[in-house]
Amino acid sequence: MTSQDGEEKSPDVPADTLAFQDPNDAESIHDTTRLELWSYYLYSVGFNFGPSQFQNLIALACGDDGCVLPYLGRKRDVNSIVLVTNGLSFAIQAVLLLLIGAWADYGRWRPNITIFFTFLAVAVSFAWLGVDDPTNWRAGIALYILGLITYQCSLTFWTAAFPGLVRDLPEVKQSLVEVKEGKKDLEAHTKFTSLSRNRVSNIAFTVQSVGEVIILAIMVGILRGLKSDESTENNTKAFSVLIAFAGGVWLLVALPWFFLEKRRPGLKLPPSTSLLTVGFKQTYVALRECLRLKQTFLYLVFYFLMGDVLNTTVTVVGTLQNSLVSYSTLQLTLLLIVGIVAQAIGIYGFWLVQKRFGISTKAMLTFNAIWIIVLTIWGLIGVHTDKFGFKHVWEVWAYQVFYGVMVCPWYAYSQTMISEVGKTSAFIGPFVSSAIITDSNNNNNMPFAFLFALGVFSMIFLWMVDVPKSRVECEEFITAESKRKAFETSGHLASAYTGDPDAKMANV
Q1: pLDDT over 70 at 78, yes or no
Q2: Distance between CA atoms of residues 145 and 156, nearest Å
Q3: What is the CATH number for 73?
Q4: Beta-bridge mates of residue 69
């Protein structure tokens, strides 16, 4: 599902091995069927115009006072309000997922939590039907924050199913059998599993893109029926109708996953730990051992920083785009059709290239990251000129194509590399960017300077990651933690990566 503002792990990424595997899962009784896999793909098909309606309401409420509103103790322009609100919502997510994010790893709670947050997010979508007047902009802020939190929490627990889903693919299970029988070496199995994970992730995002194009095409018909382009009032009401429609579609395509997902067992809770405290214990162990997991730590620093750069850049560009097209629901819908078609081409094209040439996930992600930095340079040019830098309508059309083809594959490879921790990483950039806008006399391009510098800095950490070494580090870490009984296991310890006690990445 895509937001108007714009992740599970792979064997090439040390973050994958942060999850402790119960040996009972090594001989999983579940096979991932084609129906289950396609229900997983369909879950993410949907669209949310909440960010655009939120910004539209604020812009209409500004009046003639220099287009600023009192918000959180200061007078701020539209872009600054949007960025601060984004930062608040992601900060709340960080706290919430610290408390309940670990539940994705334990027992059988995860599917139920996915269902709960999905229904809550859909309810928020329908609530927008009652918020279609500029005087309700404060209610719009509340719905916007609730929408972001419930949507991201839904995706966090949905993506947490990804490793088990791929590990139970019949071809991946057969590959592991061949390793245990001595017919295939472990390195060949890791490469095969890596491609399998990337295949599932890239197909999921391609299906999402195709589905969203269909939804947006239907939305164009809805907008024609509502005569959204005839008046500001019609346009504002149309935003709320589109949000509710998208919520209904999301619920419809999510239902198969609720019924077809296999209830794969998770870990047992550690001794003297409850569901309310296990997240804090996981965080404590991770912080305590971060120096032993040097490669993992380097990667996570890169991921958090670059994720912040991308999410904030997309938010800033989105606010500029909305303003350039005067919040026209029709224009935004047409722009998104172009963007999502480009996204489908980009994601599937990147996958075909990776498959053809056997390129590693780290290399593909590095290539994506370079284009994210190029995007910040594009915006940075507009700080001192009106000729370029998201200052013209033609630029946002070009942006949709560029972003879809060159940048959107990041989301597919990010899902392969890391899941729930990535959803909490986007609250630093919005706060800093909002402060920059406010302190630069509302120059909405100034945040790109900060985002460019942060993006370049983050690349240093990715360059330093040694992937093969990271696998050994994580196997040694899990063995040591098992002896300390930091996390409960049964029988003998399974591999951090393969999930099997007899096929480990290192002799530990």
Answers
A1: yes
A2: 16
A3: 1.20.1250
A4: 76
